[in-house]
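Field guide to reading this record: the first block holds the primary sequence, the second block holds the structure written as discrete tokens, and the final block holds curator observations. Each block starts with its own label. This record concerns Pentatricopeptide repeat-containing protein At1g53330, catalogued under organism Nelumbo nucifera.

BLOCK 1 — SEQUENCE
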Amino acid sequence: MDPLQKVSPFRLPYLLRREKNPKLALQLFRNPNSNNPLKLFRYSLPSYDIIITKLGRAKMFNEIEQILAQMSQETRFIPKEIIFCNIISFYGRSRLSEQALRTYNGIPAFRCQRTVKSFNSLLNALLNCRELEKIREIYKDIDRYASPDACTYNILINACRLSNSLDDAWKLFDEMRRKDIKPNAITFGTLISVLCANSKLDDAFRLKEDMLRIFGLKPNAFVYASLIKGLCKANELDLAFNLKDEILLEKTVELDSAIYTTLISELFRAGRKGEVSGILEEMTRIGCKPDTITYNAMISGFCNEKDFDSAFALLNEMTEKGCKPDVISYNVIIAGFCMDGRLKEAIELFEDMPRRKCAPDVVSYRILFDGLCDGMELKEAALILDEMVFKGLIPRASSANKFVGMLCQEDKMDLLTSVLNTLAKGNAVDMDTWKVVISVVIQKSELLDLSKLVDTLVLS
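BLOCK 2 — STRUCTURE
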């Protein structure tokens, strides 16, 4: 765009939408006419909507608050509720429950009427944050906020699923019917999932029949997936396969990879891995492509059986079939190697991950670090720890303290000093770490070494 070209309030939303970089978009929003910065710019509602969405996706929350403060001064329009719903959702995905609640409470200050839409956004955000008690607290005063709809109850029932509260889920379902709020397929799917998780399979299948008979709703893929998972959990694998065959025969719903992945995992668990190839053939026949989760289930199954050659073969097969292995694919094999004491192979695969275009994550480092500690490869563990901290990652506190204790027990005082320095750089030295050091050193009557250790850390 020509920098001298004037940007009108009508053109700004178009330019913001085109700009992929959220920081540059914010810069454009704040100063749309850089050649005349003193002239008052009349922002439109779409401009606010677009910039807030871009900032939310980039998790630039401080900037969002600044934009909201600016928008609160607007008198030419009233912001739409959907803008606040989006902000609440962004906070929920980032596990920022207090900010989500504050945004919801602040909607009236913008002269915007709150409805059940923003209330549901808040409930869902709190659900993402696992603030189940807060959800119960808000629900008690539900009539003060909005008139609940099916979506409201779906979120509440899902909260019961996460807290494994079957009785509360049933009460909510009965309450819906008393209030003449018609449940939908998501309602039944969530409730059936709760029943299956509580091994109430007869009730789950009965509710599935009621969906069609009483409410005229066809069970969807989520309902069938929950039932199949429930049967697998109850070690009724043959019944799970019968249900899968029933779906195929009646063409009730389209079977997806999630259902097949569940069955594949259970075949490995039941020691029936020989049947997995038949499942894969069936998936190909009906046009259901195995995804990364499906392959990871098979990789995990082979690793549990210490069949690492087959697990590796799947990595290559995934690449050949255009299904890119993810970090979980590698982490599962590295963990399998560590558990089997094959630390050299674990290190080699870990170091080979970048070449395979998959960077190790914090879980990768923690798996390898724990494996090296368990295998008493203390120098290698210290090197991995140093690399972790350099990348801004830290081990689990229990693992770090265990490692420090091992170094003390093995009289590796020079290495201990280095490790404590590394942990200090990552702000990972806590009181428990010092308790481990002090208790072991005092037990060995090496107070002089301890004083030297403290002096070294203070001076570093």
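BLOCK 3 — OBSERVATIONS
The CA atoms of residues 22 and 54 lie 6 Å apart.
The chain has a mean pLDDT of 88.
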